[in-house]
Amino acid sequence: MIIDTHLHVVDPRALDYPWLAGVPALNQAWPYASYELEARRAGFSQTLHMEVDVAAERIEDESHYVKTLADRPGSLISGAIASCRPEEPGFEAYLERQLQNSFIKGFRRVLHVMPDELSEQPLFRDNIKRMSGSGLTFDLCVLPHQLPQAMALADLAPDVTFIMDHCGVPDIKGDARQPWHDNVAELAKRANVMAKISGVVAYADPDSWIAETLRPWVEHTISSFSWDRVVWGSDWPVCTLGGGLLPWVAATHAVLEGVSPDEKTKLLSGNAKRIWKLEAAA
User: Fold this and answer.
1) pLDDT range class, residue 268, cuts 50, 70, 90
2) Which of 106, 138, 144, 269 could anchor a disulfide with 180, C-beta 3.0 to 4.6 Å?
3) Spatial strand order in the sheet of 137-140
4) pTM over 0.85
C-alpha cells in the first residue's frame, strides 16, 4: 500500500488560485473524487493534501475546505500540509492557531516561483526558527539553483524536519544534471532534511519518457538521502502534465524493482507514517 504525501485538490468554486491563469493545462477543477478513483486503483491507503498556493487571504479557508473532504466516510485524506507566509508579521499568530489543529501536519511556502532572496529575508528566517519544537514539517519546493537557500533554512532550524519536494525539481527533459546533482547531495548531508520522490514525470518529456528516463534522478535522490529519509508523492494533478498518476505509479514500481521489501515499504509508506505520525486508515 502507498501513502501519497502530495495531493492537490483544486476547486475554483470554493477557493481562488490566481497562479492557475498562467498554466492553461491545469486551469480547471481537479476534484478529490477524480483523484480517489485512480488512487484506489493504484493501491493507495492514505493521502496528505498539499496546499495549492491559493490567494493569501484564503489560506485558512483552504485548510477548512480540505478537512471537509477528509471528514467524508472512507476518505483517504489523513492530514494537510498548509500554506504559509513566513515573510509576513502575522506568521507567529498563524502558527499558534495551526498548533491547535491536529489535522495540520506541516507547512509549505512555494519558493520555486519566487525571487531567491525571499527566503533570505530576516523575518522569513526568524519565523522558520519559530517552528522549532512545533512538530510541524516544512516542505521545500525549490529549483536546483535555489537548493543552497534550502540548506540555509535547514541549518537555521536543526530540529525542524524539512521535506525537499519533487527530487529537487530537476530539469529531466533538458538533462540538466548540474547544479542539481551536487546540490541534492549537499542538502542531504543535513539530517533534518527528507526527500520526496514525487511527480518527476512533470519534468520529463511528456511524449517520450519511460521508467529508465526517471531512474538516475530518483536513484541519486534516494542514495543521497538513504531509505530512511525518503517519502513518495503523486503531485496530482501536476503529474498529468507528464502522463498522469497511474503511469507515475507504474514507473515508480519499475524503478524500485530489485530493492528489498523493507526499503520499498519505507519509501512508499513507512517513513511517512513516522514523520507525520499517521495512524492506520480506518
Assistant:
1) very high
2) 144
3) 2-7, 44-50, 77-83, 104-108, 137-140, 162-164, 193-198, 230-233
4) yes
